[in-house]
Amino acid sequence: MATRAASEAICAGLLPEDCAIQSMPSVSPLKWHLAHTSWFFEQFLLVPRLPDYQVFHPLFEHLFNSYYYTKGQMHPRAERGLLSRPSMDEVLGYRAHVDAGIKALLSADHRGELIGLTELGIQHEQQHQELMFTDIKHVFSVNPLQPAYREASAGSTSRGPVEMFYREFPGGISELGAKGDGSRFCFDNETPRHRTLLRPFALANRLVTNSEYREFVNAGGYRDSALWLADGWTWLQQECIERPLYWSEDLQQEFTLHGPRSIDAKSPVSHVSFYEADAYARWAGARLPTEAEWEVAAKGVVDDSARPITLSPSSASPASGNLQQLFGTLWQWTQSAYSPYPGFKPLTGSLGEYNGKFMCNQMVCRGSSCVTTPGHSRTTYRNFFYPHERWQFFGVRLAKDVAG
Amino acid sequence: MATRAASEAICAGLLPEDCAIQSMPSVSPLKWHLAHTSWFFEQFLLVPRLPDYQVFHPLFEHLFNSYYYTKGQMHPRAERGLLSRPSMDEVLGYRAHVDAGIKALLSADHRGELIGLTELGIQHEQQHQELMFTDIKHVFSVNPLQPAYREASAGSTSRGPVEMFYREFPGGISELGAKGDGSRFCFDNETPRHRTLLRPFALANRLVTNSEYREFVNAGGYRDSALWLADGWTWLQQECIERPLYWSEDLQQEFTLHGPRSIDAKSPVSHVSFYEADAYARWAGARLPTEAEWEVAAKGVVDDSARPITLSPSSASPASGNLQQLFGTLWQWTQSAYSPYPGFKPLTGSLGEYNGKFMCNQMVCRGSSCVTTPGHSRTTYRNFFYPHERWQFFGVRLAKDVAG
Amino acid sequence: MATRAASEAICAGLLPEDCAIQSMPSVSPLKWHLAHTSWFFEQFLLVPRLPDYQVFHPLFEHLFNSYYYTKGQMHPRAERGLLSRPSMDEVLGYRAHVDAGIKALLSADHRGELIGLTELGIQHEQQHQELMFTDIKHVFSVNPLQPAYREASAGSTSRGPVEMFYREFPGGISELGAKGDGSRFCFDNETPRHRTLLRPFALANRLVTNSEYREFVNAGGYRDSALWLADGWTWLQQECIERPLYWSEDLQQEFTLHGPRSIDAKSPVSHVSFYEADAYARWAGARLPTEAEWEVAAKGVVDDSARPITLSPSSASPASGNLQQLFGTLWQWTQSAYSPYPGFKPLTGSLGEYNGKFMCNQMVCRGSSCVTTPGHSRTTYRNFFYPHERWQFFGVRLAKDVAG
Amino acid sequence: MATRAASEAICAGLLPEDCAIQSMPSVSPLKWHLAHTSWFFEQFLLVPRLPDYQVFHPLFEHLFNSYYYTKGQMHPRAERGLLSRPSMDEVLGYRAHVDAGIKALLSADHRGELIGLTELGIQHEQQHQELMFTDIKHVFSVNPLQPAYREASAGSTSRGPVEMFYREFPGGISELGAKGDGSRFCFDNETPRHRTLLRPFALANRLVTNSEYREFVNAGGYRDSALWLADGWTWLQQECIERPLYWSEDLQQEFTLHGPRSIDAKSPVSHVSFYEADAYARWAGARLPTEAEWEVAAKGVVDDSARPITLSPSSASPASGNLQQLFGTLWQWTQSAYSPYPGFKPLTGSLGEYNGKFMCNQMVCRGSSCVTTPGHSRTTYRNFFYPHERWQFFGVRLAKDVAG
Q1: Number of domains in chain D
Q2: For residue C38, which of B158, C98, C165, D252 is within the disulfide window of CB 3.0 to 4.6 Å?
Q3: What is the residue-averaged pLDDT of chain D?
Q4: Is there a domain that residue A122 lies in?
């Protein structure tokens, strides 16, 4: 119920219109997120398990299905923003109806048989909470009025610059992935736990900063085809890409959830695509890490992911001599295509569509971001996006080969 | 002020979300209409004429310009639905601000020098009132929940069928168009008044009914290329057109401003494109009228356009032996391309963009519709749309040649 | 047979590859024109009329149908350039086969019953001869090697500049169109002959020259939205139009059937769209003529259309005090949308698709061009194209209103 | 010179028109391949190394650059089919000119310093030889006349069906990739040789046959979303995919380089995309191999790749108890995304664009095909294509996990 309430809290202070807009096909209206996460509980928990459960509205099965083809036809993704009804109020009513169903169901679940499915529903809703932040940011960004989601708190003290260095790892055989034995929650795509063989490698202690990235832009990085993957170069030319998504033309301002503000030189660069991350790394004489390297390196580091949501990524801490910004800052593009782990088996039934069917054409991101729900991240977590996407809180961590 | 209030009244009972949606590029959010009609008064009346007038918001000049290129850059038409802000409440505030300005301006206009511009602003707003009805109809139509704009009033008594007959006109030289001398309002595209030479012709007494049009559909009219203009046939195949815009697949139901309801056989068929109207006429062994024929025929008929808005087109009246449904029912496609009248001169300045620059690729519609603001129609009125458009209240009146 | 031979002569000196290329959907490979004109005779003359006629190849009915839907399915227009087979040699064999059939048929047509259809086939082939010139010009123009269709003949003596003046016409009632009584060939779209009422008007004695048009470009004509129709402005921006189709960026060179060469200041500007012609006229304080005005003015002028094909438009003659360049120079855009004449009836059967079904969205051009087959032009001829098209030999003649 | 002559021999018997057509953007005209492979030698060998070398034509550097951005601007790929010139004859002249240059250069290369670059030019031309076969197959396939590239030889004796079985491999640490030390030719993407850790796995002894794949189609495989990757399902629906590329609607005929012929049940299914291969494997209760598994399994098998080109894939041999059809039959889709090997370094200079910049969004194919130049294949060869592509000779080999 805390997770359910948190979703609604994200919309506090927004207008009904704000929650209805879809600014591009990848974005969903906030009200759709509120309804879809309820649909998930309704379809996978209440309808099959709660006797005499009445669905809230017969058409909602169709309207709020995201991509579960085996659950039937769905409203087209790109048309989610055409629906003024159900209104925000009706959607909140839907949520209350589903919450009541969940409570009834779980109070009768004396043997805890539904804990697994319920946990999946909670994790699913937490994933959508992050999308709600990234989607409202995009919605506001395309509006010439440039509204702020929240006013900035006064005086976040700026910390001094932190030098970048590489920490070396010896390689060899390591265990990757999650056990999936129920001892701790994980998604099916993190399994099975398996061994892999790595060469020696090194990872940067912190993320690439705005100031470093601005150097790349000023050096003509977006006009030098030799730095780019072929598909990235085509994308850049077709879309006239010249800088990170939310940067102003003069490279001085960026749009944030606090509205437009000066780019902070020491904060990590955000909202770059995989293509941009990869080109930057090549320009810097480095490369992106593989997801295996990232996971091995992250294992020994304390996950500070219980920190509160900050709405913008924080700069690195001068005090630390270790890897930092692994979690809670920005998702980090890896050079690994999103593929099944050896021996991967998706969940059975419609829930098998959750992760497995996307294992093509996407790249793995690791870590978590400043708008990831606290507690939602872990070292084995595999996030995945198309290489041209930018509206998520994406950042860049560099890696290098080490002579073995 | 009555006209200004009428625009807001159209939105009464709607939710803020309803007024923010753009369901296709031709449709504008209702809130945009409310703002744009205010922008028109602000830009053409208040800014140039009212001393010390403060614009409501510096960006609104950009956001609510529709197509006046000579007034500066404008927000792209297809992206009007991406703006959650300004909210409906802010737009109403904008309207109040502009209304106050108009009142101040006109109370000081002792010699009535601004009557012409004010009248233009009023007529402009009335045109947008009709668009508000057609746009909200489309917005609701694409929603699987199929909301009603207004509940239907009980018991509209159905009138008996009215036989179609053709009324003949002798042709010869007639005067067309409006004088444009200020004695009665007209748009620049209705001028200059000029003489034209017509052959004898005949016009149908009433519009084509749903039942007649359904026969055409059932007879395979949408599958017989010989009935269609080449561009119409291409359009029909690309868009998979098989029936009027709002008809259900079984040809029994149509979507209306009262929600879905049974198609009334005796009511006129509506929401057909020029291509469909033209193909139907060919199938029926007739043709569409020219705009000159329509105007000549309409001259002697009483304009009943002061009737209240009905939201759906009414069926013909059995009592009448004359031409009927000329006004207040459905716009009637003519076979005339929208071209300048001989000697046409557009208004000077930016207002010259109002009508003249659209005189290519569009077809003239005559009459008025069931959602035209009462008093807004006249025999010389020239409405114009692309031949594939259907979301306006379009209908079909047949014509024939008569041996001279 | 002279017409048939002339088509093949156009291809003399070209390579088989030249005759197979389709450089845009509006262009057809020359080999396709050679085959389609034969298909026309085969389908409308030989198959229905010549006993025991064997079609050359069973699939050619499908491959070389242009747009006669009622004759069956056809190969998609945009894919004509994907066909390496039939080869040029096979197509020439097809032509010989059809020619033999025509000879056999006509030698047995003792009562001349087939003269009408044969004449239509000849006129149809002459229309395609013009297209062959315009299409090969476009094919060569997109090739960076810029090949010449024919080497230029040495020393075309340049004539002095000819001042533009307007010749006035009184207006009143005139007869327009062709009788269509068989006394002289005409297309169905030129009928019926009918009366029209014109206001006094004036027509420019000659076409707009390259030098005059270059002034318009240099004056920023392509960047001033106030000069353009709305659809023209949209077209110009989407297609990045900045000058006539074949002009070089520096406005000094143009691509011709003789390859690239210096723009001749006194020659008429060519390969402009209706939108450009209309914008130029507005900039020049004039307008385009209506097709009725053009026809009335052309009536008293000697048609010099028996002149040989020149491949490029000639400049005006200083000697003349009359209207000139009506024929044999460039097609002249009118401001008239292509619509049916009052009382128009298309041919019966599939040949009714020849002209009538295109009477929407296109503009009428009058006159003829430097690549029109000699003898193919007349004052009542109605050519028609979409307003954005430029690859035909289009030019600009100005007109003006005259106080009545 | 044998390789150079082989390219020209592929065009023997074709018409000039056949060699000029581009049937889709991925296809290049055969004449373009002939010129581009010469451009490669000219740009990378002759221009930088042969004193006083005169380029054949100054524009060819632009026209026949494929994708080497660092070599300058290039003619757009999708417009290669718009060029009638240079003609086939001119291109052959270009080839002779380049051949003479190569001979002059190599005869003076006493110390063999240019062997590496020359070998790369030869391997590059061999790759294009395969594309010439696949491209002319596509060109002919879209022609309703369905021409044959070669007449089929009489009586290819059909061999009995071969049962499918899985051969198991123990996994563990293996060496992958090529040494790249110059001892044998390899592309940069095959390096560096490196160790990898595999779980036990099994590979099918032969490729999936037409008859097996037809069962999948008949069982509704193309209509069951649960079998497909998400992007594959989207692709299938948008492109209306219902069967392999060259199969007829009744699943009985396929288009081949010998023209249309009956589908041979025992031959391997060909011209399927990665999406289809992956869906088939899922339906069959198996999966596709990784590229590492394929390479490990292929190591001990005799490469029969010196066999002659057969134009169509041969069926499996009943005699064999080993893995077969690894080479010379069909490229085999793997489940591995095309990524850099650990420690990968592209070639320096423009040749670095050869392979490395494509390492995103593509899938690895292993083996070789019935139209691969004899001698061009090896176990470490990495071919790569987008997952939706079908016009290459692609086939399906199944794999399975084995309990470790």
Answers
A1: 2
A2: C98
A3: 95
A4: yes
CA distance A13 to chain B (A): 13
* Within-domain flag for A157: no
Residue C391 structural domain:
166-401
Rounded CA separation C59/C7 (Å): 23
Contacts of D63 in chain C (CB under 8 A): 144-145
In a domain, residue D152? The reply is no
Instruction: Tell me which residues of chain B, numbers 212 to 241, contact chain C at a CB-CB cutoff of 8 Å.
Output: 225-226, 228-233
Give the DSSP letter string of C201-245. EEEESSPPBHHHHHHHHHTTGGG-GGGS-HHHHHHHHHHT--S-T
Tens digit of pLDDT for each residue in C80-116? 999 999 999 999 999 999 999 999 999 998 888 899 9
CATH number at residue A363: 3.90.1580.10
Are residues D201 and D313 both part of a single domain? Answer: yes
Residues C33 and C124 in one domain: yes
| HEC sequence for B68-105 | CHHHCCCCCHHHHHHCCCCCHHHHHHHHHHHHHHHHHH
Contact D325, D393 (CB under 8 A): no
Q: D144 and C15 in contact by Cβ < 8 A?
A: no
Cα(A283)–Cα(B290) distance, rounded to whole angstroms?
A: 67
- 8 Å CB contact between A370 and A310: yes
Q: Is D80 helix (H, G, I), strand (E, B) or coil?
A: helix
Q: Between chains, do A70 and D226 touch, taking CB under 8 Å as contact? A: yes
- Together in a domain, C247 and C334: yes
Judged on CB neighbours under 10 Å (0-12, 13-18, 19+), A308 is: exposed
**Nearest in space to B333 (alpha carbons), one of B389, B377, B376:** B389
Do residues C181 and C55 share a domain? no
Give the phi and the psi of residue B268 in degrees, each rounded to 5. Answer: -70, 145
Task: Calculate the average pLDDT of chain C.
Answer: 95
Question: How far apart are alpha carbons D168 and D165 in whole angstroms?
Answer: 10
Instruction: Render pLDDT for B89-139 as a digit per residue (tens, 0 to 9).
Output: 999 999 999 999 999 999 998 888 899 999 999 999 999 999 999 999 999
Is the domain of B78 the same as that of B198? no
pLDDT of residue C303: 63
Provide the mean pLDDT of chain A.
95
